[in-house]
Specification:
- With 570 residues, the chain is α+β, with helices and mostly antiparallel strands.
- It has three domains: 269 residues, 2-Layer Sandwich (BirA Bifunctional Protein, domain 2), CATH 3.30.930.10; 132 residues, YbaK/aminoacyl-tRNA synthetase-associated domain (YbaK protein), CATH 3.90.960.10; 96 residues, 3-Layer(aba) Sandwich (Rossmann fold), CATH 3.40.50.
- Helix content is 26%, strand content 28%.
- The strands form eight sheets. Strands 3, 7, 8, 9, 10, 11, 12, 21 and 24 form a nine-stranded mixed beta sheet that branches.
- Helix 1 crosses helix 11 and helix 2 packs antiparallel against helix 5.
- The protein starts with 20 loop residues before the first helix and ends with a helix.
């Protein structure tokens, strides 16, 4: 490819809307352009990288036993009604009607579609296991699309679905995909961790997120340096913290004027924050009140509250709902709350002694609250509902957990029979009995992987691609393409690199050398080979490695071998 023919409109300034570094660099390096909010055109450089990522994915999916197919993007509402998800998936689903008034959606995911396909074709255990995948666009109407390809409304995704005859088989398929994902992100040259995660709207059993480590990531990850435990902050298991036992004092109501926050209560009563109990009030989709209680220095984990209560979504509670249940905003506790509210208490709270909690009336708190004595055990749900913090003990080995940030690029799920049951997808087992498929679901965001690679690999000058997913591996730059001798010299190097199987670009533009070099660094080609009057006179080639900045001068006869040797380590 010649740069004079390449459509790669680079920019010197970033668009005002771009927030993340990857978003800015993809605009500036001529990789993407915005079509609408959360929708982007992939320009040739980006699409070359996307195709390389997709090729790595295909190779690993095929090696693990996957078979590629292509399903419709537009899905009929009937199959979503069958699974029960049409009404509950939420406003993220893009819905439409055809000319006959029939309901459809643009596929946010394909569990329903693949399950209805397989139920009509696979009738015997002898046809299992089965792993089917596709790479295609998905659509989710994000309430606030942002961060470029990180949170968009239209995106390219690989999704594979496994079908097995039993749980053991499902777990084998899960491990195959786990290993394949490890290979994919390793081959892409990314630093990542597989972390335990919540299944969210997909449902099902256990799950891992493959998360690229980057300071700008949306995901918070708790990990242990003493063992291999890692989990998203939404999923991280937490050990119960047992307070030192004390003699239980009588429950007493005290005045706490204007002390409507934990910080104000702590200061007014002069107690350690670890002795206070914090309340957070939610409402579910039906308007039901859910009250969550954690220790004053902890935060409520909404995902864990959802899992503990069975609610589909949570919203911050209206003050009228709190009052109707006998509570008072800023002064709440489980003591005296109406049976109409669901009360969820963190397991650590139940181990507190002589604590402080709201008295459910303005400007008043209880002191000497002993939850095991004072909370009605029949009215409360006790569960781990707090958010992990750095220093919490690892649930596996007890060492102090550390926190980092990352970008989720892939996730693997076990679904069990969640969808096969709701969609009545069965086969005949060895005994001739009708049995539900055991399923798994495995997704990779292709665009997110590209963006995450940029977030992890960049410097002040631009992108730094790994060889495996760079749009071009090498760029050959004649300093002055108007000089026929320089251009001819560069053309020969370019031709020899192509013959050697290198994905190479010749920058034959009639631009100043400084412009070319800046573009090379901005776009991030792993290796740059420069032809100048000096190298022409000496019969050499100057070769620069983008990542390290190292510069090598190879004799003309050795330059192809030298470049190939450098590429092996990039």
């Amino acid at each position: 490819m010649r740069a004079s023919q390449l459509y790669a409109p680079t920019l010197r300034e970033s668009p005002a809307e771009a927030e993340l570094l990857s978003h800015k660099l993809m605009f500036r390096a001529g990789l993407i352009r915005k079509a609408a909010g959360g929708m982007y055109t992939y320009l040739p450089l980006a699409w070359r990288t996307m195709k390389k990522i997709m090729q790595i994915i295909r190779e690993e999916m095929d090696a693990a036993g996957g078979q590629e197919l292509m399903m419709p993007i537009t899905q009929p509402a009937e199959i979503w009604h069958e699974s029960g998800r049409w009404a509950v998936y939420g406003p993220e689903m893009m819905r439409l009607k055809d000319r006959h008034g029939r309901d459809f959606c643009l596929g946010p995911t394909h569990e329903e579609m693949i399950t209805t396909l397989v139920r009509g074709e696979v009738k015997s255990y002898k046809q299992l296991p089965l792993m089917l995948y596709q790479i295609q666009n998905k659509y989710r109407d994000e309430i606030r699309p942002r961060f470029g390809l990180m949170r968009s409304r239209e995106f390219v995704m690989k999704d594979l679905y496994s079908f097995d005859k039993d749980t053991d088989g499902m777990n084998v398929s899960y491990q195959k995909m786990y290993d394949a994902y490890t290979n994919i992100f390793t081959r892409c040259g990314l630093k990542f961790r597989a972390v335990e995660a919540d299944n969210g709207a997909i449902g099902g059993g256990h799950s891992h997120e493959f998360t690229v480590l980057a300071p700008s990531g949306e995901s918070n990850i708790a990990y242990c340096e003493s063992c291999d435990y890692a989990a998203s902050d939404e999923k991280a298991e937490l050990k119960i913290i047992h307070a030192e036992a004390e003699e239980m004092k009588p429950l007493e109501k005290v005045s706490t004027p204007d002390a409507h926050t934990i910080e104000l209560v702590k200061n007014y009563l002069g107690v350690p924050i670890e002795k206070t109990i914090k309340a957070v009030a939610f409402q579910d989709d039906d308007g039901g009140l859910i009250l969550a209680f954690v220790r004053g220095d902890h935060e409520v984990n909404e995902i864990k509250v959802l899992n503990a209560t069975g609610a589909l979504h949570l919203h911050m509670a209206e003050e009228s709902a709190i009052t109707a249940a006998g509570g008072s905003a800023g002064f709440m506790s489980p003591i005296g709350i109406s049976d109409s509210a669901k009360i969820v208490v963190d397991a650590t709270v139940m181990e507190m002694y002589n604590a402080v909690a709201g008295a459910n009336e303005v400007d008043a708190h209880f002191i000497n609250v002993n939850p095991k004595r004072d909370f009605d055990a029949e009215k409360i749900i006790v569960a781990d509902i707090r958010m992990v913090q750095e220093g919490d003990p690892c649930p596996h080995c007890g060492a102090a957990l550390k926190m980092t940030r990352g970008i989720e690029v892939g996730q693997v799920f076990t679904l069990g029979s969640k969808y096969s049951k709701s969609l009545n997808a069965t086969f005949l087992d060895e005994g001739g009995r009708e049995t539900y498929f055991e399923m798994g679901c495995y997704g990779i965001g292709v665009g997110r992987t590209m963006a995450a690679a940029i977030e992890q690999n960049n410097d002040a000058d631009g992108i730094i691609w790994t060889r495996a997913i760079a749009p071009f591996e090498v760029v050959v730059v004649p300093v002055n393409a108007k000089d026929s001798a320089q251009l001819e010299y560069a053309e020969k190097i370019y031709a020899e690199l192509k013959k050697s199987g290198v994905d190479v670009l010749l920058d034959d533009r009639k631009e100043r050398a400084g412009v070319k070099f800046k573009d090379c660094d901005l776009i991030g080609y792993p290796v740059r080979a420069t032809v100048s009057p000096k190298t022409l006179d000496s019969g050499s080639v100057e070769v620069k490695v983008r990542r390290s900045g190292e510069v090598f001068n190879f004799n003309r006869a050795d330059c192809i071998g030298g470049i190939l040797s450098l590429l092996e380590n990039l």
